[in-house]
Write a structure and sequence with these properties.
This is MICLK protein. Residues 1-39, 141-162 are annotated as: Disordered. Residues 22-35 have a biased composition (Basic residues). 75% of the residues lie in helices and 2% in strands. It is mainly alpha-helical. The chain has a domain at 33-141. The chain has a two-stranded antiparallel sheet with strand order 1-2. The longest helix is centred in the middle third of the chain and has 61 residues, at 24-84.
Length: 162
């Protein structure tokens, strides 16, 4: 996954036209930077959409899981009554009812583990979203800092040039 490391600015065509002293090479570099910023924004938007779709899928699965757990709970209460002799067990013998009860407990534990996994995935998505927002804020601050430096720029070797 490509991380958006370029900082974004709100450069426009006015920026190019208002500075006639910019050389052709500088104009080309500015256009290239704006193109990369646009691509970065699109990438960020796509990642947000992926996270949104995944979050919606997790939410649906959690809702289905909750329904299944409720149904198991109702069945479990009924089965426990039959085991205690409070309800009519019909033709079921005690061994069969105990077997069903243990299977019910195993199924319930399995659903609880699955629920835990889904909650971890949801938390992971929240953290990814938070990270993306922080990265965006950082890019904005870097863009502001870059504009406030004015004509001073850094060379690739880390030396400051006028």
């Amino acid at each position: 996954r490509q991380q958006a490391t370029e900082y974004s600015t709100s450069s426009s065509d006015e920026e190019l036209e208002s500075k006639p002293s910019l050389t052709h090479k500088a104009k080309r570099a500015l256009r290239k930077r704006r193109k990369m910023e646009k691509e970065t924004k699109q990438l960020i938007k796509q990642e947000e959409l992926k996270r949104l779709h995944k979050a919606q899928a997790v939410q649906r699965q959690l809702e289905e899981l909750e329904e299944r757990q409720r149904a198991l709970e109702i069945f479990g209460v009924e089965l426990e009554r039959e085991l205690r002799g409070e309800a009519d067990s019909g033709t079921k013998d005690e061994n069969q009812m105990l077997h069903e009860w243990f299977e019910l407990v195993m199924e319930k534990n399995k659903l609880m583990r699955y629920e835990s996994e889904l909650l971890i995935i949801a938390q992971e998505l929240e953290l990814e979203d938070h990270q993306s927002r922080l990265e965006q804020k950082l890019r904005e601050k870097m863009a502001i800092d870059g504009k406030s430096k004015g004509t001073v720029c850094s060379s690739p070797q880390g030396q400051t040039m006028p």
